[in-house]
TrEMBL record:
Subunit relationships: Forms a complex with TatA.
Annotated function: Part of the twin-arginine translocation (Tat) system that transports large folded proteins containing a characteristic twin-arginine motif in their signal peptide across membranes.
Domain of life of the organism encoding this protein: Bacteria
NCBIfam families, A to Z: tatC
Keyword Transport: yes
GO BP: intracellular protein transmembrane transport; protein transport by the Tat complex
Coiled coil: none
Organism of provenance: Flavobacterium frigoris (strain PS1)
Protein name, UniProt field: Sec-independent protein translocase protein TatC
Family: Belongs to the TatC family.
One MF annotation (Gene Ontology) recorded for this entry: proton motive force dependent protein transmembrane transporter activity
């Protein structure tokens, strides 16, 4: 195929993926009440699953109510006339993207499959399954771990008792979108490392030599998105470090196969 033919294929990939996202976004419209009241704004309530889990963990570790969250001293307000309309549309689009992610992966696979060997083409189902699984695990990690800890931190942090926390709707939704998507895409790291290793752009030795920098970076991220306590930072950091170690293992596996 010529370069323009590849561009044409890429254009149709984007078109079909966009249509899939819009269709799934339209589906979420019918459950928008549950989507917003229970899912989106769930982390703003002390009864949220993660807060209850930390409270029970606090009791089991003998910390009494030190990690228990009993109130959320802030309010979320809309300051723009079209603010709630824009938020409604973009949240539905985000939900549509998450739900249609396996189909988007299938489209990407069809686009890159001509450059693969026949044996590799047969692994389409494996690629889509594990890529989707990792992405959904990342989304759940962002929703149940990163967002609650971030909300709790910003809700309780104040420079003075004179200042009241009144967050805009856009800032809260922006944090939710960033946390969920960033976590979902970060959990795709093993898949990315797989292809980078096959292309020869990344080697196991490179990943091992830079492990210390990755650990420092993960700890910094965990410290930023969590309250200033060791338990919370550890809970966030461990899954991210495990993902990085899994990426090294995959790079070693691919590198050995390439040498064979």
């Amino acid at each position: 195929m010529s370069f323009l033919d590849h561009l044409e294929d890429l254009r149709w990939l984007l078109v079909r993926s966009t249509v899939a996202i819009i269709l799934m976004a339209f589906v979420t419209y019918f459950i928008s009440d549950y989507l917003f009241d229970t899912i989106i704004f769930g982390p703003t309530r002390p009864t949220f699953f993660t807060y209850q889990f930390f409270c029970e963990l606090s009791h089991s570790l003998g910390f009494a109510d030190n990690i228990c969250i009993t109130e959320m001293p802030f309010i979320i307000q809309n300051t723009q006339m079209e603010g709630q309309v824009n938020v409604f549309i973009w949240v539905c689009i985000l939900a549509g993207f998450i739900l249609s992610f396996p189909y988007i992966l299938w489209e990407i696979w069809k686009f890159i499959s001509p450059a693969l060997y026949t044996k590799e083409k047969k692994n389409a189902k494996v690629f889509i399954f594990f890529s989707s699984l990792l992405f959904f695990m990342g989304v759940l990690f962002g929703y149940f771990v990163v967002i609650p800890m971030s909300v709790n931190f910003v809700a309780t942090f104040t420079v003075s008792d004179v200042v009241l926390n009144q967050f805009t709707l856009d800032s809260y939704i922006g944090m939710v979108k960033t946390s969920v998507l960033a976590s979902g895409l970060f959990f795709e790291l093993p898949i990315i490392i797989y292809f980078l290793t096959k292309l020869g752009l990344v080697t196991p030795s490179f990943l091992r030599n830079n492990r210390k920098y990755a650990i420092v970076l993960v700890l910094i991220i965990a410290a930023i998105v969590t309250p200033p306590d060791v338990v919370s930072q550890t809970i966030v950091a461990i899954p991210m470090l495990l993902i990085f170690e899994a990426s090294i293992f995959i790079s070693v596996f691919v590198s050995k196969n390439e040498k064979k």
